[in-house]
Every structure is written in structure tokens, then in C-alpha cells.
Amino acid sequence: MKTGFFKKAAAVFMAGAMAVSLAGCADDSWSAKDDTQTLAAGVYIYNLYSAYQEAQSRVMMESLSSGTSSGSTDFYSQQIDGKNVTQWMQDKAVLKTKETLYLDAKIKADGIEWTDEDQKEAEETGTAAWAQQKSVLEGFGISKDSFLKAYSLYNAKYLKIFESIYGENGTEAVSDQELENFFKDSYSEYRYFSKSLTTTGEDGTTANLSDDEIAEIEEQFKEYAQQVSDGDKTPDEVASDYQTAEGLESSPLNGSVTLTENIVLSSDLQTAFDEMKEGEARAIKSGTSYYFLYKGKIGDHLDELSTESGRMSVLAAMKQDEFQERMEKETSEYSCTMNDAAVSSYQPGRFDS
């Protein structure tokens, strides 16, 4: 009885030891492969690192918007899109690693032109970026070749496929009129500069300006707004006037032509901007500052669509979500093999400083 028992125990022990040994010897040097190529583990590690950075940013922004404070101690207890943050990062890294294989397969299957010049240009872009990040990425086990595949070559091929679908000669080409309509409906021009209504003493203490000083600033800013609204001056011209009056070294004018949804203003300024007509300027007190705020005529900027970079920028804003969903769906259906040993052995915690 005892002899049989010990034989069974020994067998179980040996089986367990063999499993540990095999696990320890699992090949985690590669991350994914299909019928034509095998990606090094560094490609997955870079994608996990990118997901880690994005997750930290999203958690921080969520923390700020909700008024809570989520420090590094509870980062891994957070959720993104209904998933635990660790699972979210790993899923995103796996998807992008598979997508790296799928981009090549799709370019070949769809007959999309990818020239030696395209390859060279993407590699040169990646090499310049690598020089800035080499020491950090190598410390995580990411080689230059893996970085190029996961970063610059991935981005260039992703854009090449995007253009093959939505570009001027694409299979689902967006017409100039469609793009113009989107630009007019979705973009805004906003410009502003401000003056503080407080002063800071030599001892670092802050004091409010007097009522007379504030009234003088209000009158000055209302005059700027009136001049622009009446068409007598441009925002650049009144900003130049203010720069001279204040003895500033550079123009105080901020703002740009951008997607309306991307404009970030204080609630006072945002409310005013939403109410304003194109070509209108206003003088607005918000918090402890007085603002000159201008809402431009978006139609005056249609020439941005005539340049290759401008057209592509607006086209990306118009179709990027649709394209991303398409690519994620197609990638999820693509037949390739992930190296589970590599995926499980490289955890996001390796990037914690």
C-alpha cells in the first residue's frame, strides 16, 4: 500500500516538475505569426507599452473630470470601456499585434501599391523616432526592428490602406463636396487672448485690481471686440495693438481652426462661443481674467482642403472612427497565431517606474 502510494506521489511530482520545466522553456521570443511572417516579441511589448501609456492618460483624464484622484497605487484597479485596465491594455496590444500582420496581408490581397520608397520613408521616420526613445525601449526588450514594425511601418501601411479606401481614387472615395460639407459642419475657428485681473507682489501674494482698473480693461477689450465685429480690424491686428500696449515680446493670440468638439474653453467662454455668430468677437470676464474671444468664418478656410496634408487631415477626422471599426473587425477575423506564452509573460507592470 505504502509503496503504491509513494509511486503515485512520485509520478504526480514528476509530472508537475515537467510542466514547470516546459513552461520555463516556452519560446517567448516571438509574439504572433501567419503564413508569411513571424513577429518578434518586441512588437507585442511595444504595443503593450503604447496601451499602457494610453491607459494612464485615460485614467488620469477620467480622474480629473470626475474630481477624484487616482494615483499609481490604484491604477490597476481602474476600468476602461468596462474592462479592468490590465485586461484592456492586453487586449489592445494583442489586437494591434495581429493588425500588424493583417496590414501586410491586406495590402497584398487588395493589390495596394507599397513601393521601396514607401518602405524607405517609413523606416527613416521610425529611425528618427527611435533615436529619441532607444534607451527606454531597449530597456523593455524592444529592438529597433520591432519598433519600426510596430510604429512607423504600421502607421504608414495603416494610412496607405485608409487612402486606398477613402482617398480621391479609393474604392469608397469621399468627394470634394462631401469633404467640404463635413468641414463646414464640424470645424470652427476660435481665437482669444486675455488679461489677468489680479497682480502678484514681490512677496508672491496676489491682489485684485481696483474697480477702476478693471473697468478700464473692460472698456479696452470691448473696443477690440467691436472693431473686429464691425470688420474694421482683424483678430491679428487687435492682438498686435494689445501686444504693443502691454509691451509683450510675442503675440498673445491663441486658438486655431480645429474640430469644434476639440475646442476646450472655460464654461463662460464656451457658452459665449456657442452663442456667437461667425465673424463676431466678444469681451468676456471669466474667473480672474478678461478675454477677447473671436469666432471666425469657417468658409474662409476652405483653401485648407486644397493641400494634400490639409485634405488628409480633414478626411481622417471624417472617416477615422469608421475605418478603425472596419480594421478591428477584419483583424479579429484574420487567421493568425498569437504566442500565448509571450503574451502572458510580458505584463504591463514592467513599465511602472
Any overview of this molecule?
The chain has 353 residues and is an alpha+beta fold. It has two domains: 28-172 and 311-351, no CATH class; 182-301, Chitinase A, domain 3 (Roll), CATH 3.10.50. It contains twelve helices and eleven strands. It has helices at residues 2-24, 41-66, 85-109, 116-139, 144-150, 152-166, 176-186, 211-229, 235-246, 267-275, 308-332, 340-345; strands at residues 30-33, 38-40, 79-80, 83-84, 187-196, 198-200, 206-208, 254-259, 280-286, 289-295, 337-338. The chain has a four-stranded antiparallel beta sheet. A three-stranded antiparallel beta sheet has the order 2-1-11. A two-stranded antiparallel sheet has the order 3-4. Helix 3 (85-109) packs across helix 11 and helix 5 packs parallel to helix 6. The longest helix has 26 residues, at 41-66. It is globular. The protein starts with a helix and ends in an 8-residue tail after the last helix.
